């Protein structure tokens, strides 16, 4: 399952006890890997590979409880196929960045990987990200403590919300072995309304107006080649009525394009995974207040871009990029260098640098979970105060 | 009874000096030390426990909060943060040697940003005030804990509050975009903002639900939603809890996500009806309130589907609201259930476990047996859609031994929730109330890791002492003594975490 670009030896624990033992005794740094599809994101790590493929398989799925538990290395495709059999899905629409990253041959995304990176597709806007659906887990800390957190129910405030902290920690805090997620019913049908827009300003104005209607727009993006796109999902009668309401509210002209079901799903799979930027050598993923997107796009001058999350997510593609200049142009929000040649990732902050006091807390948390700093060292940047900020 | 933290006599002896120091940080009249005025802060909604603090301070600005916390950090003084004091789990109950930092003066909405669909509010703004502030443009803030008229958004963040609509719209954690927080060491930090997700560790997600153990939140940015076009409710009666539970399961299995789905048992129905007279059927064992909201076309469609499912599951009555007044009347009984039950008995405990939905009939039957065994009445209200159970245990604190009996009953219910694959608390928090049960749900390594997180923020363990984590819990340096209950459990085959 692991990509062909492995330089160092791979360690492959057979089970949880084996993994705990390995983390207690292994002398050097470790890079936890399941499918390996996102290994090219982040500062390159000099570590032995920790192959987690033993932790795969759905261990509990109760459609009536809307909850699923699986090994962290279970392929996303396996999960999605099983959910589809029960007309359910992962509402946060985890994207597959295979096309965008053009990575070396490797396994596809896994459930644990999607969570460790806190991914979300275009439905992030209405349904949340992986963090919002991640109910509980079993994991092993950097110093070999096997522990669990969260639970198998949605409403749970028992102890700290460690699933939130582990989501988006990119394997730097602990090694996930088993994860529980909430699942959602799949809609009967979906329709996407695409309205021509001359630029980002016009597009965000359209999306903002759509999102201020009560028509439950579940995704809103601007793809410059296509226009401002808004997705409406649900029961047939309801979707028809809401699309009508939306068209009225937008006062849209005759150039409106409507795409449905399979075509609509394909549109959002492409948009949510920023596949249209795959020709760019460098891609920056930027989260901003949605209304600020047009100004930010003008300031950062990308070769190509698209807007998702109603404007709140900017994908900016470049042949080469000075990430610090991009960051300097963002008054509020954060930017991650999502795709870049290895040499560039080795020389810059790939993840957004934190203000000194927050960085101090992040460093203490890293030390709490991984006292010796052996899990993915440096992947999210130096954890400690940044004197320059 | 649950033990409160043992005070440090040296700190108690320094009381006058500490009060004087606080009066140099904030205006003197905003430091309270007279016993009669401290009494207003000695408890919260877990009124069985009371403890006056050393002093209460009412800061006005984030800078003042930071100065207070830097002083307390330097002097090693414990801190108990407080919002409106509506915690049902004792989260705001003071320690005798603590300073209570009461955030009531942080009561301004700072910004309403429709373009970015969010509101920035100081922590002491009430939950409902946020929705009111944006109502004229047809927006609202979704989480709606039943205390929303009084509870503050800062308290909601501390407890990760829910409400009857969180089945569809999520808990506080799913609706908060950012916070400003002062750390126990007095540093002002910001997590998140008017944008989605963290570019680094999700410290916002960790802060929500941290029960005042890792800092004081001073400002909150929440997302607001457009009000649904329509909302209508069904009031469905069943002759058995099993049938009502089966109906809930059918609705979920059908792919319907109601805005709210509440269940009440016979004692709760009768108490509520006697209290508000809204026409609840009295000849049923279980009552479901199902609310559907959204576009008119969708609500009409789903009303029909839910009605059909209810009939198939043997409902004996089914009323559909035909006006907004009627919809609100359906809810009036449910929303008044706690005070209504309060009229039946001098005192009651409100429990708060969450269970997998499918375990409802089993758990209610067991609670019925426990009620017989303890000789204490119980009424059940239940967020059926997400499995969050609120048994109300009726007792009389003036009868010797009855409080202890009620607590033992409550503990047994919560252990049952854990045994069937659920958790100790769905939305009220662990606080003081459920602290000593944490070792039932979590094993020692689980608590050790949580403790490490606590110490990353609060190395001296001064913030909200005696809450959430058992005092007996040994830290990592004391080794790995396994303290988990060895008692055999039902449903031992269920994954438990």
Written overview of the protein:
A 5-stranded antiparallel β-sheet of chain A has the order 4-5-9-7-8. Mean pLDDT of chain A is 94; it is low at 1-6 and 385-389. Chain A has 3 domains: 1-186, Uridine Diphospho-n-acetylenolpyruvylglucosamine Reductase, domain 3, CATH 3.30.465.10; 189-272, 2-Layer Sandwich (Alpha-Beta Plaits), CATH 3.30.70.920; 275-345, Alpha-Beta Plaits (2-Layer Sandwich). With 389 residues, chain A is an alpha+beta fold. Chain A has helices spanning 16-25, 76-85, 98-101, 111-116, 124-127, 162-166, 200-211, 236-250, 261-272, 293-300, 323-328, 342-347, 356-369, and strands at residues 10-11, 30-33, 48-51, 58-62, 67-71, 88-89, 134-141, 146-150, 174-182, 184-185, 189-195, 217-223, 227-234, 257-260, 282-287, 304-308, 313-318, 334-339. With 497 residues, chain B is an alpha+beta fold. Helices cover 35% and strands 20% of the residues of chain B. Chain B contains 18 helices and 19 strands. In chain B, strands 12, 13, 14, 15, 16, 17, 18 and 19 form an 8-stranded antiparallel β-sheet that branches. Chain B has a 5-stranded antiparallel β-sheet with strand order 5-6-10-8-9. In chain B, helix 10 packs across helix 12 (296-312) and helix 15 runs antiparallel to helix 16 (402-419). Residues 472-497 of chain B have low confidence and may be disordered. The chains are: A alpha+beta (389), B alpha+beta (497). Chains A and B meet through strand 4, strand 7, strand 8, helix 6 and strand 10 of A and strand 9, helix 9, helix 10, helix 12 and helix 18 of B.
Q: From the helix content, strand content and strand pairing of chain A, which structural class follows?
A: alpha+beta
Please outline the major beta sheet of chain B: 8 strands, antiparallel
Quote the beta fraction of chain A: 15-25%
What amount of the residues of chain B lies in strands? Answer: 15-25%
Compute the separation of the termini of chain B in Å: 27 Å
Assign an overall shape of chain A: globular
Mean of all residue-level pLDDT scores of chain B: 92
Count of helix runs of chain B: 18
- Shape-level CATH architecture of the largest domain in chain A: 2-Layer Sandwich
CATH class of the largest domain in chain A: Alpha Beta
How far apart are the first and last residues' alpha carbons of chain A, in Å? 40 Å
Give the biggest beta sheet of chain A: 5 strands, antiparallel
pLDDT < 50 stretches of chain B: 472-497
By DSSP, the count of extended strands of chain B is: 19
Rounded Rg of chain B: 23 Å
Backbone structural class of chain B: alpha+beta
Low-confidence stretches of chain A: 1-6, 385-389
Report the largest inter-chain contact.
A-B, 98 and 95 residues
In spatial order, strands of the major sheet of chain A run 4-5-9-7-8
| Nearest-integer average pLDDT of chain A | 94
